[in-house]
Design a protein that fits this description.
four-stranded antiparallel beta sheet, alpha+beta, 162 residues, 38% helix
């Protein structure tokens, strides 16, 4: 019998993220508490740039965006936001969407699978993903549960389950 396997990846649906950003932009344009404070949110290359005239307002813009991401099914673990910083007469926050599993986190997940996972399960790092294989599908599902419950600071998805 051939080995069954799945890939552990960390990806963000760009269209959903774009939709969340557009919804946040619309809400910021319409809300009364954002009138006259220069609040805005937009893509700046690969980053998301939020602006407002005070630190509290720019944090409120970030909060609106986070709410829209959650409604769109994107985990906040995928959002990497910096601290508000002054830029001229306004405050800014730059955020990025984290994609892929870093080598450090892949090694942590690999060690977790080796130490706490079922013995028949093997895992190997392949670029920015992790391939997990075993003869037993039940062991693979136990490994998925183990990784879901682990605190790895990134949003994990499981793909190519065969």
């Amino acid at each position: 019998m051939a080995d069954s396997s799945f890939d552990v990846v960390s990806k963000v649906d760009k269209m959903e993220a774009d939709n969340a950003l557009n919804q946040a932009h619309k809400e910021i344009e319409q809300r009364y508490d954002f009138k006259g404070v220069g609040a805005s949110i937009a893509w700046s290359g690969e980053k998301i740039l939020m602006k407002a005239n005070t630190e509290e307002r720019v944090n409120a813009v970030l909060d609106v965006f986070q709410t829209k991401l959650i409604k769109r099914g994107i985990s906040l673990k995928s959002l990497d936001s910096g601290e508000p910083y002054p830029s001229g007469k306004e405050f800014r926050i730059e955020s990025t969407l984290k994609e892929g599993i870093s080598q450090e986190i892949a090694k942590k997940a690999n060690k977790l699978i080796r130490d706490e996972g079922p013995k028949s399960v093997k895992s190997q790092i392949q670029g920015d993903e992790l391939r997990v294989s075993s003869k037993s599908r039940d062991d693979l599902q136990a490994t998925m549960a183990l990784l879901k419950n682990a605190d790895l600071d990134i949003d994990l998805q499981f793909t190519n389950y065969r």
